[in-house]
TrEMBL record:
Superkingdom of origin: Eukaryota
Keywords: Signal
Signal sequence interval, chain numbering: 1-19
Region annotation (Disordered) ranges: 325-346
Protein's name in the database: Macrofage activating glycoprotein
Length: 370
């Protein structure tokens, strides 16, 4: 994969928001039991960015390829969702406040991943969060261009991206394997673009959910927010250790915290550390056909309708314990310069396969080198 796809711009400045506005009832503070989800969780009506465009009550009546469901799930290898645009041929920068849930499995009232949309997947289950990362054919999820961005429970005004988005899981360690009980993840962060994605949802009862699922490092992308070993063509589930909180690093026994510049106009400069994926073990591999049977009948660009294919059991193969591998080198840059290439020795052959170790969502208006 070329260095061009390494440099992905968040383009956060594309959304015009009054700088002094912040929600009186921010999304991250909303405690919404699964059995008490409202039609729309957003309550503020004076946000200059607008109002929630979709809905949170999602069921069989909303489950189709035109769904505007904004409640998503990260449960298991064959049962997870991503945020992606509703209109075809869209950029994340233009739709971040309005993205909707696309899921691997029926039953969530959402859109379903079309056949071939997910081309690689790694799911890591830790004591405090669930992390997913992988590769996609982004045009099948209505995404165009080489630019992507962050979608998280914070948002520039506290309303989240998407505005009013809710995330649940029945697979947190604290749930003790009870698939019938869904727990809300109040802290979550996803990156998607350049045919790659990553995401992390934190258990509110776990260790430091805000620190492990930070949403203030939007310019650093997957490499720093969700270090991983995902690769195209590989579908695996692993147990893992908790990573060090995003932005925190240790050099010669001294713990420090890196602070991303607040303004997009300020170059990132030299980031003082290179993250690596936390150790993982007990990895189990799956076949794509076993994981995505519910979308097998949906082909090409989404045009409405849902698949009728019934689910299949996921045939798994257990392999030896995995060890942590280095991620691709980080990129940093300025708003006025060209997007930087990777630093370090991993170059364009990092741990992501075609995603090359990580998405780096650089400053707005930074363009990839040819």
């Amino acid at each position: 994969m070329s260095a061009t796809l390494l440099s992905v711009s968040l383009l956060a400045a594309a959304t015009v928001v009054r700088a002094d506005y912040f929600s009186k009832d921010p999304l991250v503070n909303k405690v919404v039991p699964f059995n008490a989800i409202p039609y729309q969780v957003m309550t503020d009506r004076d946000d200059p960015r607008g109002f929630q465009s979709g809905y949170n009550i999602c069921n069989s009546t909303t489950e189709n390829q035109n769904s505007l469901c904004q409640t998503m799930f990260v449960n298991h290898m064959d049962d997870f969702c991503l945020w992606a645009p509703a209109p075809p041929n869209s950029s994340i920068a233009d739709t971040e406040g309005d993205v909707v849930a696309w899921c691997s499995k029926k039953g969530h009232g959402s859109r379903i991943f079309p056949a071939g949309a997910i081309t690689g997947l790694q799911m890591i289950q830790t004591p405090s969060y669930i992390q997913i990362a992988g590769t996609i054919k982004q045009e099948l999820l209505n995404i165009v261009g080489e630019f992507g961005g962050e979608l998280d429970s914070g948002g520039q005004d506290g309303e989240g991206n998407p505005m009013g988005g809710l995330v649940y899981s029945n697979a947190f360690k604290s749930n003790n394997g009870n698939n019938a009980t869904y727990q809300q993840a109040q802290h979550w962060s996803f990156f998607i673009g350049a045919n790659s994605f990553c995401g992390k949802i934190c258990d509110q009862t776990g260790s430091n959910p805000q620190g492990l699922c930070q949403n203030i490092y939007d310019r650093l992308g997957c490499q720093y927010n969700a270090p991983n070993n995902a690769a195209a063509g590989v579908f695996e589930k692993c147990d893992g250790d908790d990573m060090i909180p995003v932005g925190t690093y240790i050099v010669n026994g001294v713990t420090s915290v890196y602070h991303q510049p607040a303004q997009e106009t300020i170059p990132l400069g030299v980031i003082p550390y290179t993250p690596t994926p936390a150790p993982s073990s007990n990895c189990v591999t799956y076949t794509s056909a076993a994981l995505f049977a519910d979308g097998a009948a949906i082909t090409g660009a989404p045009q409405g309708g849902s698949a009728t294919t019934t689910g299949a059991s996921a045939g798994a193969t257990t392999k030896g314990a995995a060890t942590s591998k280095g991620a691709a080198g980080a990129a940093s840059g300025s708003k006025t310069g060209s997007a930087p290439g990777p630093s370090g020795s991993s170059g364009a052959a990092g741990a992501w396969g075609v995603s090359v170790g990580a998405l780096v969502f650089a400053a707005a208006a930074v363009f990839a080198q040819a």
